[in-house]
Amino acid sequence: MTDDEIRATRMRAQRLDGPATDVAGLVRHVVGIQAQEPRAGALSIRARTKGVTAGDVARAIAERRIVRTWAMRGTIHFVAAEDVGWLTRLFAPAEIPRAHRALDKLGVPDAHRPRAIETIVEALRRGPLTRGELCRRLERAGIATDGQRAAHLPRLAALEGHVCFGPPRDGTDTYALVGDLSASDPSDAVGELAKRYGAAYAPATARDMAAWSGLPLRSIEPVFEPVEPTVDPPDPPLVRLLPAFDTYLLGYRGRDLAVPAAHAKKVRPGGGIIRPTVVENGLAVGTWSRTAARVTIEPWEHEPDAVEEIADVERFLSR
Fold this sequence. Notes:
Shape: globular
Oligomer: single chain
Mean pLDDT: 94
Radius of gyration: 20 Å
Number of strands: 10
Distance between the termini: 43 Å
């Protein structure tokens, strides 16, 4: 396959040609949409669907058809509700020790941690709570929540399988119990993940999956089966405005095929940031931003035909 064919095929596999109309179905197909910034996660869904609005994404969250939680690489993703349980259990063994090390650095006594989890679970039985509300419950139980403790204690509860993010309340995140969202575990969780990754990210390698998932390569190689369909590059070129931290740029071991080396720092300036990017047939050709309800493109070498994409971003975000 040529580089152009690889990029075109990956765009098709990730649904960046926009055929999907169901939010939860799209999220399940790509396994997860990175969403530490919820608005960026919603815009990633927009880039892969047709006619979906930000309101549709909000309804999918409110109806708990998709859920924000910690998944691949220990980062926050939108995942399909039925995938919350098994994905959490798959990634937790690597992430829980890291969570405890973070709490060690914050000076949270070991003895306080199980009691904090119990307090969080009990507090959420009556419904979702904001971080501030949850912190007040913890403080009353004698557990300090100053500094980053307020973020890391609920995260530990999530990694242990009790908690996920709930529907936002007036623009503020809430936490909620996982409850009965979780379906049964697949008989082979790594194999199921490899199958789903192969379908949504092809062509890719086991090393790509390891980088995307955060799982050790040794656990992936025995079950990974390459999927290599070939798609001809669209003509005229397909232009997409991808948000910060989009899955297309985070789904592989490297970004060399998607981002020209001469412009790599414009997309990833440092500090773990991945900027909003304009891609043309899967190749980044510029960055973009939206301020004061206006989309601005900063092209690198030529002006992409992004008129329809700009209009669609505005449509998606329109109230």
